[in-house]
Design a protein that fits this description.
- The protein is of the alpha+beta class.
- The chain is built from 13 helices and 14 strands.
- The relative contact order is 0.06.
């Protein structure tokens, strides 16, 4: 006799409360037994109905009983047929009817229990909704992007702005231009001290249109300005240069409480500001750093002249302009000799005679080889050990006009000066000026100017 599956077994199978091995055995039995498949179908339909319906209607029991009656009528027909064939068939029909009655009783019990719970606890579903675990509730994803910003802050003397690199996090929904302004408010150290933004300033809004960033600030940006055109200059350029580091921003239009303002305190304020490269100084090109570089270069150049090391000297000569040699402090552009970077490497051994200018007093041409000129009008004193080393200061000595700063505009001049001996009344003073010009962030020698007492 075939053993059929109980309603309890089928319910456990539907609910997933059986082992993998038992599940495979039940599936195999259902494939072979039509009676158990019929029970399983009724059980599955009823379970789905309970899961999908929002409420239990009064027709539920009737619908279940009708399904069972159909099974009963079918079993009765089978019973008559079985009588004709075998004495064992009625027994099987009776088992099937008992199974259907058992199914009705099982789900009838579940129905009554569910109905009682629904009637006595009407707010239970609402309570369950409220106490959902965080895992059941979708949490909005917060996207955080890390970017590197270049911010500009005033130097100590408030003459220039200096770039500072800062790594910051930007959350989704944040505007990057607003993050830049917020970081400027933190100051160069990031702790709110030494901030360039006037105290109490609030960023009300920002918008970028056609390459222009419209920065809408509170009135404190104007009212709490400490004053002075120099401060205004570095303040505006700190903000503008920081924002124009962003590729989508070319200009910045300041708004105060949503309105354009004609002037800040001294500066015209109603037009967009463009980036200002001339006010930027890096750690390498601050005035202090430049002076250190020029002094170091001067020492190296003097050492090369003293040692007559033209190979080393050529490294410091301007690659395009070469170096101009002036025998006196008045630079004559048409007469002075200019030597290229390559020429100077081998010129010391050359017998070529150059006309370097005119001797003061006699007016005779200065006709010398490079080696002779070097000994007479360049390193004729031990300038490495000069009495004074003077950086970017003009001194007019003797009766020759000093036009070095006019000829070499934008360059830096370092002068090595010997004051002379008392026995000659100081008339034997000597001076050598080295002139350096920048190219692509590097300083090169462009002028060697000798100076002495002239008649």
């Amino acid at each position: 006799m075939r053993i059929h599956l109980s309603v309890k077994d089928l319910d456990a199978f539907i609910e997933g409360n059986v082992s993998a091995r038992e599940r495979e055995k039940i599936k195999l039995h259902l494939n072979e037994c039509s009676i158990c498949r019929a029970k399983y179908g009724i059980l599955l339909d009823t379970e789905n109905y309970l899961a999908e319906e929002d409420y239990i209607d009064d027709m539920f029991t009737e619908r279940v009983m009708n399904s069972l009656k159909k099974g009963e009528y079918k079993s009765a027909g089978n019973k008559t047929l079985i009588k004709r064939r075998s004495i064992l068939k009625p027994v099987l029909s009776l088992i099937l009817v008992c199974a259907f009655v058992g199914t009705a009783f099982y789900f009838g019990t579940k129905y009554d229990s569910l109905k009682r719970n629904t009637a006595t606890q009407p707010d239970r579903s609402q309570e369950t909704q409220i106490t959902k675990t965080p895992a059941d509730t979708p949490v909005p994803t917060v996207r955080i992007e890390t970017v590197n910003l270049t911010l500009y802050f005033p130097n100590q003397s408030a003459e220039f702005v200096v770039p500072v690199q800062r790594r910051v996090e930007i959350k989704n929904g944040e505007k990057i231009e607003e993050v830049v302004f917020r970081e400027l408010q933190k100051g160069p150290e990031g702790d709110g001290r030494n901030t360039v933004i006037p105290e109490g300033t609030k960023l009300l809004s920002s918008e970028v249109r056609d390459g222009v960033c419209y920065l809408n600030l509170s009135k404190e940006f104007v009212e709490n300005n400490p004053g002075g055109s120099a401060f205004e200059n570095v303040l505006i350029n700190s903000v503008v240069n920081s924002l124009t580091e962003l590729p989508e921003i070319k200009k910045v239009q300041f708004l105060i409480e949503g309105e354009k303002r004609e002037v800040y305190s001294h500066m015209v304020f109603d037009e967009p500001f463009e980036r200002n490269e001339s006010i930027i100084r890096t750690a390498e090109n601050t005035p202090e750093a430049i002076e250190r570089s020029i002094r170091e270069l001067g020492f190296k150049v003097l050492t090369a002249f003293r040692d007559k090391d033209m190979q080393t000297l050529s490294q410091y000569v301007h690659p395009d302009k070469g170096v101009r040699f002036s025998p006196y402090t008045y630079v004559e552009l048409e007469r002075d000799v200019v030597i290229s970077k390559e020429e100077i490497k081998t010129l010391l051994e050359s017998d070529k005679v150059y006309t370097w200018g005119l001797y003061d007093g006699s007016g005779e041409p200065i006709e010398l080889t490079f080696s002779e000129y070097l000994s007479r009008f360049v390193y004729d004193r031990d300038f490495i050990n000069a009495d004074e080393i003077i950086y970017d200061v003009r001194y007019d000595r003797g009766n020759t006009i000093n036009n070095v700063f006019e000829v070499y505009k934008g360059s830096h001049v370092i002068e090595y000066y010997f004051s002379g001996n008392e026995e000659y009344g100081g008339m034997d003073w000597k001076s050598l000026k080295l002139v350096f010009e920048e190219k692509e962030g590097k300083w090169y020698l462009v002028g060697v100017v000798h100076d002495e007492w002239t008649i």
